[in-house]
Amino acid sequence: MTQSASVAGTGGDEVPAPIQSSSLIRLQQTLAQPVTAAFLAGGVAGAVSRTVVSPLERLKILFQVQSAGKDEYRGSVGKALMKIWREEGFKGMMRGNGTNCIRIVPYSAVQFGSYNFYKRFIEPSPGADLSPLRRLVCGGFAGITSVTFTYPLDIVRTRLSIQSASFAALSGAQDKKLPGMWATLTTMYKTEGGILALYRGIIPTVAGVAPYVGLNFMVYESVRKYFTPEGEKPSVVRRLAAGAVSGAVAQTCTYPFDVLRRRFQINSMSGLGYQYKSIWDAVYRIVSQEGIRGMYKGIVPNLLKVAPSMASSWLSFELTRDMLVGWGKIDP
Question: Is the pTM of this model over 0.85?
Fold first, then answer.
């Protein structure tokens, strides 16, 4: 939006001259603030990365909640994906992605934004680089903050992902009209214990998310610096590679917590509920019934999605953030 001011022309006539609106300048300067830019860029990064790998994300969840003796989704990743495609089509491959994007936009926005917020209190001096340990601590706090704000949407996303799956325990569910996000959220609230039902599994989630996010930020910054010669700006390829490496390391180190999170999220679900009494009870029963491999169910599709997910997340985050920060450097 522009305002007009009159300036003298060559013939003495007044010619309107465009002047940039002060409100637009203020908006650009606000968006260019590091915390605000990181918040918005994080939301974009989350939506892009989750949509890119949605079929693998859903398959990972199906593997995670499948207990010993169940073989509905066994075999290779390719065969399992083809089973979903044959039975549910394209909608089945993307089931739960809408809710996941609604969750991941504020989740990623809060995560990246809070990381930059906490960074102010942890950095040794304004603008100074953080050490790997400081990045780990700062990322851990950012992970706890983001998951606390958006956890109810995460548990709903898990329910939506498995409600149409061809598990024997859910026989007949595929023939019914499946509830959407808000209906599932409301039903859980009314029938499973109110607000506590929407935060079922939050403890193992936080236990895994804090080190996961911390490792992600720490490894990404370290690897990006390692890949980038001193004095050069990191290229797109180097950013993609750093994002893929950081995601793979963080996911592998914290994966058992993700399995626990999914099991607790369906702990009271009819047909598939495991009825675990505590985290230690869950670990004991999973290992005794399914072996140590039970704690790593779904890790193959998870690792397959890590590279494209984290790479696209970090790339879209940095491109969006740099664009927003660049707005503040434009002369009025």
Answer: no
